Amino acid sequence: MKPVKPILFAFGGLFIIILLIPTLLVTPFMEQSKGKLGEELTVAKSEVPVLAESPLDVPVYRSQTKQIESIPLEEYVIGVVASEMPAEFETEALKAQALAARTYITKQLMNGPISTPDGAAVTDTQMHQVYKNPEELKAIWGDKYESKLQKITAAVAATQGKILTYQDQPIDASFFSTSNGYTENSEAYWTEAIPYLKSVKSSWDKNSPKFYDKKVITIKDFESKLGVKLDTSSGTVGKITELTPGKRVAKVEIDGKQFTGRQIREELGLKSSDFTWEIKGDSVVIETKGFGHGVGMSQYGANFMAEDGKTYEEIIAHYYNGTKVSEAEPFLSKYTAKN
Question: C or N terminus of the chain, fewer CB within 10 Å?
């Protein structure tokens, strides 16, 4: 019986070694893998922009409460981007929108308030830029609030402190929803010819859900809104006499009266001034292409460009020709010094 113990110990030791071998072989690789994963997570985390403290507050007139609310600049930009562009859009498009929004408010602060109550720099409506606060966005987005806000905040943070300039001055960073295939010259819609707001091709927009629209207006309403009398026997509405560089209606003649395409769009509540029309029965059927005034950046065009792999710098360069991305701080400092 005495020789048995050494044999048992030998087999026991061998059994322990067999159990340990896989662990000894795998552990170094596990540690290496964990190390790489840790490095990847650290890198990924470092790539997420962090929103810096805003250099000033923006006094915003809240149309619902009829109160002026002071909102930190970058938080204001987040609220504008969230209100003016779908959060589902590509990040590069959201960055372009953030630049446009920050440029707009910087120029507004520098030039002084226009059409605002005393003490406010802007309103929260389309008169300036639509702005909604976190509580309002949460009510709209519901359970998608956190993910959407995080995405927009990252886009704003990636461009924080930056604006668009032309000849060292903040630009009029106008934007709209969807073009008719072309953007518009500024003077074709407003009066001033602005060198960086010229018509450019935006063929991506035909894929926008807002590219096409149809509106039916009774002849009676049509005549009342425009102060004209239609010749229903001829079946024609009016004669388009001139087009804009952006292929929209520049001038039209109805019942001997001259109108601009913008006047027709505004009086009849059309989505665009690129329209065609015809009389059908006792109504005028109007078909439009595009949505918005057409000047500046097309938001859907920007998103389609981003889907094609374009960066926000390339988007900006396309829609605001000749502009550059600059620091906002020198301009904001002038505003702060005055106030």
Answer: N
Map out the domains of the chain as residue ranges. 57-177+311-338, 212-289
CB 219 within 8 A of CB 279: yes
Strand 162-166 and strand 169-170: the pairing is: antiparallel
Report helix angle 312-319 to 299-307, nearest 10. Answer: 140
Are 61 and 117 a contacting pair, CB within 8 Å? Answer: yes
Question: Per-residue b/e over 247-262, b at no fewer than 16 CB within 10 Å?
Answer: bbbbbbebeeeebbbb
| Closest among 280, 276, 238, 272 to 255, alpha carbons compared | 238
> Which amino acid is it at 53?
E
Q: What is the rounded CA–CA span in Å between residue 303 and residue 299?
A: 6
> pTM, whole model, 2 decimals?
0.82
pLDDT digits (tens, 9 = 90+) for 212-243: 999 999 999 999 999 999 988 877 899 999 99
| Structural element, H or E, at residue 48 | none
